[in-house]
Design a protein that fits this description.
It is a single chain. The chain is mostly helical and 279 residues long. 70% of the residues lie in helices and 1% in strands. It contains 14 helices and two strands. Strands 1-2 form a two-stranded parallel sheet. α3 packs parallel to α6, α6 packs antiparallel against α7 and α12 packs antiparallel against α13. The mean pLDDT is 93.
Length: 279
């Protein structure tokens, strides 16, 4: 008979297969235990993200989830099926608990209309919702030197900046403008223009600047590939390649993120995974 932890892992893997559009294929390059662990972490973070996006989302609901998480970290589980696998993964791979607390803080901040005056403020948000994901996953990948940590942080920022550029109009319609106000003023782009999908010359110049910033974080985080354990490198390479390709697709469309959502086809993602596997 399957025990509670294995049932929980099966639940998390179903969530990852159905929801992790840009992640799941890369998980297949890992060992069985690493793959299950990645699914458990993804299921937790997916639920966190969904909490802030649901209509009528409340601080109370997120705080209840935080309380359940704190209990789960100590081995006491509510009825939600992901907790046993989450607890097992955190213990097995020695993942610091503060990463998950930062993630919930970031999700909580999304309940209010988002505005960032400076890139420094945006960076802090990217750290909470994306860098902590990178920092968590390298514990599953394995690493031997602490110099991997700031590189994983930068990699997470690169991924989140790519997401922000892809989702500009959708976010603006929900009252979330992640691009720093100082950048909007510098290039002469208004929030109303973002909501209206106005792809003006000013908008293109703004996007070119922001894409270049994201590219810098990809470049600066590249040495991370050599610092994680060799058995995990193909998985990280696939992840980085998929997100880098999304940014390339945004750039190649001349920043047309308004008429359709930029995405990679399943075939493209599968090909990236195969190339990573043989690299």
């Amino acid at each position: 008979m399957m025990n509670e932890v294995e049932q929980s892992y099966q639940y998390c893997c179903r969530i990852a297969r159905s929801r992790a559009k840009n992640f799941y294929d890369s998980f297949l390059l890992l060992s069985a235990q690493q793959r299950k662990a990645m699914c458990a972490i993804y299921a937790f973070m997916r639920y966190c993200d969904d909490l802030s996006d649901e209509p009528g989302a409340t601080q109370a609901a997120i705080e209840r989830w935080r309380a359940e998480m704190e209990e789960a970290l100590e081995g006491r589980f509510s009825e939600h099926p992901l907790w046993p696998a989450f607890h097992h993964t955190v213990r097995r791979f020695g993942i610091p608990h503060d990463y998950f607390r930062e993630m919930i803080d970031g999700v909580l901040s999304d309940l209010d209309p988002r505005r960032f005056e400076s890139f420094e403020q945006l960076y802090r948000y990217c750290y909470q919702v994306a860098s902590v994901v990178g920092l968590t996953t390298i514990h599953i990948f394995g690493f031997d030197t602490r110099s991997a940590l700031p590189l994983a942080e930068k990699c997470g920022v690169a991924f989140q900046l790519t997401n922000i550029l892809r989702d500009i109009r959708e976010d603006a319609e929900r009252g979330r403008v992640y691009l720093p106000a100082e950048d909007l003023r510098r290039f002469g782009v208004t929030e109303d223009a973002l909501r209206a999908g106005d792809r003006s010359e000013a908008f293109v110049r703004l996007m070119r600047f922001e894409a270049s910033r994201a590219r810098t974080y990809y470049d600066e985080s590249r040495p991370l590939l050599d610092l994680i354990h060799q058995r995990s490198r193909s998985s990280l390479l696939a992840l980085v390649s998929i997100y880098s390709r999304l940014l390339e697709r945004i750039e190649g469309s001349n920043y047309d993120v308004f008429t359709r959502r930029v995405r990679l086809s399943p075939w493209e993602k599968s090909w990236i995974v195969v190339r990573a596997m043989v690299s």
